[in-house]
Amino acid sequence: MRRMIGGALAGVLALAACGTADESETPSGDTGGTKTVKLQLQWFVQAQFAGYIAAAEKGFYREQGLDVQILEGGVDIVPQTVLAQGQADFAIAWVPKALASREQGAAITEIAQVFQRSGTYQVSFADSGIKAPADLKGKKVGNWGFGNEFELFAAMTKAGLDPGKDVTLVQQQFDMQALLRRDIDAAQAMSYNEYAQLLEAKNPKTGALYTPADFTILDWNDVGTAMLQDAVWANSEKLQDSAFQDTAVKFLTGSLKGWAYCRDNAAECRDLVVKRGSKLGASHQLWQMNEVNKLVWPSPNGVGLLDETAWKQTVDLSLGTKNQDGQTVITKQPDGTAYTNEYAQKALDALKGEGLDVNGTSFQPATVELKEGGA
């Protein structure tokens, strides 16, 4: 079949070569007794990062003696590269992407796993006949590339499909217009963002907004090819310093408290994100906040703790999944510095000492009504 994107790893490495934070900015320092640290987001400001924004706006970082500067991400910024180059103290990145960067020499360590579940979908119109990954055979399959496609390729591999021969891969923009125009048969979407864009679009046949019944979703959590997503990473070399270890615990304490706050105050956190400069509308951001909470809560072991079974699945899929060029995400097992639960556990112990619910066992998502265009 015709190929319309480059190799899965090529996008990651190409971005790594050009995506950095402003090099004129200096690394962290102390200001008037408050330590300044930088957090690099992996995308533009939106509710995907609400916990960190809430921690900054509600003073949870200040309680820990930190002034956290939040650096916005974007298409040309690879957070793990920014981190490895010393332009940030912490970064948010998907685990398989970061593992690929580690194998290329980035000295980074995961110190907290905030998202407990994957938020990636492959969405089709209900009349397309795509109900399982095997049904993608012979179809035009959109994806963003840059490492976002690993779960999709894992699902196709599991279904016995060769991404290089059995489907037509299409470079998808970061929206759903190609699917809405039916230029492609299946589109990549995040549960908290692009999927909502479909439900905010008007069905030309009815004049009303599309509904979930108009679409079919392939959810990688259900398919069994989910990989760990938004994790907190730190520089491995800095973590050898006891003072930075203490900073890491403080940063996680404030961050995880922020996520608990957004669990219990979704509408307020939506407002904080909008105030911070999100380019998406208020109803869209409330949807996003609700859907992101579903990925974080409940956290059976405690928010921020990495589940080793989920880690093993992510690593195994990264080792075994091949892209259209026959490359795998990584070629060998990550070494022992790839992750640690030490700092997240200390943060949780501190939060539990405050009486904070760090598991969210009783969390119930809200019902959010979307508006046309996400207004």
**Overall radius of gyration:** 20 Å
Kindly report how far apart the N and C termini lie.
40 Å
Query: Percent of residues in beta strands?
Result: 5-15%
Can you summarize the main beta sheet? 6 strands, mixed
Structural class estimated from helices and strands: alpha/beta
Q: Helical content, roughly? A: 25-40%
| Principal-axes shape call | globular
Low-confidence stretches: 1-27
Task: Name the helix and strand elements from N-terminus to C-terminus, one letter apiece.
Answer: HEEHHEHEHEEEHEHEHEHEHHHHH
Number of strands: 11
Structural notes for this entry:
This protein has 375 residues and is an alpha/beta fold. The chain has 14 helices and 11 strands. The protein has helices at 8-18, 50-57, 60-63, 79-84, 95-103, 150-158, 177-180, 194-199, 220-223, 242-264, 266-276, 282-296, 308-320, 342-353, and strands at 29-31, 34-40, 66-71, 90-93, 108-113, 120-125, 140-143, 168-171, 187-190, 215-219, 231-235. The strands form 3 sheets. Strands 1, 2, 3, 4, 5 and 11 form a 6-stranded mixed β-sheet that branches. Strand 7 (140-143), helix 6 (150-158) and strand 8 (168-171) form a beta-alpha-beta unit. The longest helix is centred in the last third of the chain and has 23 residues, at 242-264. It is globular, with a radius of gyration of 20 Å. Residues 1-27 have low confidence and may be disordered.
